[in-house]
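Quarterly update from the structural biology core.
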Amino acid sequence: MSANSADRNPQPAGRNPQLDVVLVKAGRTKIRYSGELLADDGTRVAVRAAWAGSGVRDFGFVRFEPGDVFTEYYWRDRWYAVKEVRSATGALKGWYCDVTRPARRSGPELVVEDLDLDLWRSADGTDVLRLDEDEFAESGLGASDPEAASAALAALDELESLARGDGFAALLA
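Predicted structure, tokenized:
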């Protein structure tokens, strides 16, 4: 049993516990926010959190804004996270996917290392966008850790295949 699998958290009756999500990039904390722990089965962790950014962030293909709700799925054995994004009214905006190293949980903290690559799938599935491949190339991961770089690129390909296929329903069920 790994240290991560020992962190399984059966859900108590009533309110779900809080979990701090820590996104690390290049060895530094990029963002830390608190979310509601929905489930942790020892492999996948699900968290619900409000948009943690300050103000509106317009990417051109989607706007993240105060009131948006993210249901986030992290894996201890996969190189990505999938985030379902809904507006304050509950309308599905789409899925934002981060390519990451497998998540690590220690007590009330979930640490995820961002590897620069991202993918967006719109709610209707018509837009599937690979993002930040230039940042990934500039990161130097291919030279410093070729195995991780290969795993990251394979993860992005897998996410794109899912997004262009039946979407993320089976993965997130």
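The two ends are 24 Å apart (CA to CA).
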